[in-house]
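Justification of resources, computational component.

The compute hours requested in this renewal are based largely on the per-chain cost of generating structure records like the one below. Each record pairs the submitted sequence with a full structure-token output. That output is archived, and it is also reused by downstream analysis tasks.
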Amino acid sequence: MAESGARWAAVVVNYEAGPLLTECVRSVLADTSAGPVELVVVDNGSTDGSVAAARAEVPGLRVVTAPGNVGYARAANLGAAATTAPVVAVLNPD
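The structure output for this chain reads:
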């Protein structure tokens, strides 16, 4: 989810996280202590349905699909590049 004018962004790198991805996304969106968040999930080629489940639970979820499992660092960089916020936090779903 992109929050226009957000002061910070969260990039969640996902690979086969199962239901933990949805839990993580909901947790990030629920914490407004730092203001609105620009949330981006980067999927590293998951086949477990975690992204579809998260999208079903969180309409409008912004997902960047990596070209396969490109590794954590490259996926984090893809997510950071997709944000506009001046501060970016990179998270694991677990």
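The longest helix spans residues 19-30. The chain is about 30% helix and 25% strand.
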